[in-house]
C-alpha cells in the first residue's frame, strides 16, 4: 500500500487484514519445529519444549527429547527452571502489589523497604523499587553474582553491595543485576510473609498455574527436566541442581512447565484481565533505559531497530513490531519468553541444556512471524 494513502484508511485496512494474515502465518510452525528438532538432534541436546500461543486460540506445543538420558519424554507438564525469566513474574507481582498495599510500590525507596541496607549514594536521587526491577540501579552490572554462586547468604551479599560505588545515578543507565533482587525477598520477610507466598497468592493461584519456587519444589515435581552442562562440543553431562540463585528467587527462582508458560503468555496478552490488567502490562513494557548491547546480539541484530529495558521485560522494536522479551540462564537450563501485543502472539522455549541454540531459534521464530503476517 502506498504510504500516501489516507492514514485512517490504511489503519482500517491493516486492522481488517491482520487477523487473516496472522492465521495464515502460523501454518509454517510445524515445519519450523521439525527444523529445530533436527538442529537439536545434531547438537545432541537432551531436550526442549516450546509453546506458541495465539490470543483466544488453542496453544501449540512442540517437544523434543527427554528429562535426562534414560528419563521420561518431555511433555507440556514437565517442569524446568526459568532462571531470569523469573524477573517477568517479579515485575508482574510488583505491578499487582502497587494498588493493593501502600507498603510497596514502584516509587518505594529501598531504604524504607529494607532499612537495614543503605544503598543510597546520591542524596537527591534515592534508589527506588522501580530501579531494581527496571535494571537501572547504577551499580556495576551483575554485581556480586560471584558471591551468589559461591553460596554466600543473601544478607551478606546485600551488605557487600552497600559498599559498592555506583557507575551512575539510579535511573540513568542500564546495569543488569541479580543480587539486588534480594531486597524484595528481604522486604517480604520483614512483612512476615515471603516472595513465594505472595507469588502464589497474587499470581499462581488466581491464574491456576502449577508453577513453584525453589529447588525442593522442582525436584518434587512429578516430571522435571534434569539440568545438563556441556563437557565438550555437542556432549552434555547431567549436573546437580544448585541452591545459589534460588536464594535470590525474585531474580531467578521460579520453576514452570510449558503449560504454565501458556497461561503466563495468555495473561500478558490480556486474557486474564482480572489478574493482569492492560495497565499493568503497559507499565511493565514501557521502554525506560536503552540496552545498546542487545543491538549486537547474534541472530537478533539484523532485526532490532531499538532495544530497551522496561520493568522486568526487555522491550524491542523487532522489524517494526513491539516485542517484549526476557531470557534466562542458570547452570543446566536455558529459557526464553516473549510476546507481541501488536500481533497477539506469544512464545516460550524451555531447555534442559546450556545451548545457544535458543538464541538462534527465538530470533528466527519472530522473524518468521513478522514475515508471514504481512499481507
Question: Could you explain the architecture of this structure?
Answer:
With 375 residues, the chain is an alpha+beta fold. The radius of gyration is 21 Å and the shape is globular. Helices cover 35% and strands 19% of the residues. The model is unreliable at 1-24 (pLDDT under 50). The longest helix is centred in the N-terminal third of the chain and has 19 residues, at 7-25. Strand 10 (314-318) and strand 11 (321-330) form a beta hairpin. The chain contains 14 helices and 13 strands. The protein has two domains: 15-82 and 196-241 and 256-373, Beta-lactamase; 104-190, no CATH class. The termini are close together. It has an eight-stranded antiparallel β-sheet with strand order 2-1-13-12-11-10-9-8, sandwiched between helices. A three-stranded antiparallel β-sheet has the order 3-7-4.
Separation of termini? 10 Å
Write out the strand line-up for the largest beta sheet, numbering strands in chain order. 2-1-13-12-11-10-9-8
Order of helices and strands: HHEEEHHHHHHHEHEEHEHHEEEEEEH
**Tertiary shape:** globular
Number of distinct helices = 14
Please outline what is shown here.
With 375 residues, the chain is α+β, with helices and mostly antiparallel strands.
Task: Chart the SSEs and their pairings.
Elements: H1 7-25, H2 29-42, E1 47-54, E2 60-65, E3 79-81, H3 86-97, H4 110-113, H5 129-133, H6 145-149, H7 154-161, H8 182-190, H9 195-207, E4 212-213, H10 215-219, E5 228-232, E6 235-238, H11 249-252, E7 254-257, H12 258-268, H13 278-284, E8 289-290, E9 304-309, E10 314-318, E11 321-330, E12 333-340, E13 345-351, H14 357-373
Helix pairs in contact: 1-14, 3-9, 3-13
Amino acid at each position: 500500500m502506498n504510504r500516501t494513502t489516507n492514514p485512517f484508511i490504511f489503519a482500517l485496512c491493516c486492522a481488517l487484514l491482520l487477523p487473516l494474515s496472522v492465521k495464515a502465518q502460523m501454518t509454517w510452525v510445524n515445519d519450523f519445529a521439525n527444523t529445530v528438532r533436527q538442529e537439536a538432534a545434531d547438537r545432541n541436546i537432551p531436550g526442549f519444549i516450546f509453546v506458541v500461543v495465539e490470543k483466544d486460540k488453542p496453544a501449540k506445543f512442540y517437544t523434543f527429547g527427554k528429562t535426562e538420558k534414560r528419563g521420561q519424554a518431555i511433555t507440556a507438564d514437565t517442569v524446568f527452571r526459568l532462571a531470569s525469566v523469573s524477573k517477568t513474574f517479579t515485575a508482574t507481582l510488583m505491578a499487582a502489589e502497587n494498588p493493593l498495599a501502600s507498603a510497596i510500590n514502584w516509587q518505594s525507596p529501598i531504604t524504607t523497604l529494607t532499612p537495614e541496607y543503605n544503598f543510597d549514594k546520591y542524596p537527591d536521587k534515592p534508589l527506588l523499587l522501580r530501579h531494581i526491577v527496571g535494571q537501572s540501579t547504577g551499580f556495576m552490572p551483575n554485581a556480586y553474582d560471584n558471591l551468589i554462586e559461591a553460596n554466600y547468604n543473601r544478607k551478606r551479599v546485600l551488605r557487600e553491595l552497600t559498599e559498592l560505588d555506583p557507575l551512575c545515578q539510579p535511573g540513568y543507565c542500564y546495569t543488569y543485576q541479580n543480587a539486588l533482587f534480594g531486597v524484595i525477598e528481604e522486604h517480604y520477610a520483614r512483612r512476615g510473609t515471603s516472595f513465594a507466598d505472595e507469588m502464589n497468592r497474587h499470581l499462581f493461584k488466581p491464574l491456576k498455574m502449577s508453577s513453584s519456587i525453589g529447588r525442593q519444589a522442582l525436584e518434587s515435581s512429578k516430571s522435571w527436566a534434569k539440568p545438563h552442562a556441556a563437557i565438550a562440543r555437542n556432549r552434555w553431562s547431567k549436573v546437580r541442581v544448585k541452591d545459589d540463585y534460588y536464594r535470590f528467587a525474585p531474580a531467578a527462582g521460579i520453576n514452570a512447565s510449558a503449560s504454565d508458560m501458556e497461561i503466563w503468555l495468555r495473561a500478558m496478552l490480556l486474557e486474564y484481565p482480572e489478574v493482569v490488567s492492560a495497565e499493568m502490562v503497559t507499565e511493565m513494557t514501557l521502554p525506560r533505559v536503552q540496552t545498546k548491547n542487545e543491538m549486537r546480539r547474534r541472530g537478533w541484530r539484523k532485526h532490532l531497530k531499538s532495544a530497551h529495558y522496561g520493568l522486568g521485560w526487555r522491550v524491542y522494536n523487532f522489524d517494526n513490531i513491539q516485542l517484549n522479551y526476557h531470557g534466562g540462564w542458570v547452570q543446566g537450563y536455558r529459557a526464553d519468553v516473549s510476546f507481541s501485543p501488536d500481533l497477539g502472539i506469544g512464545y516460550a522455549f524451555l531447555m534442559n541444556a546450556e545451548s545457544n541454540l535458543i538464541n538462534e531459534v527465538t530470533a528466527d521464530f519472530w522473524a518468521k512471524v513478522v514475515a508471514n503476517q504481512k499481507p
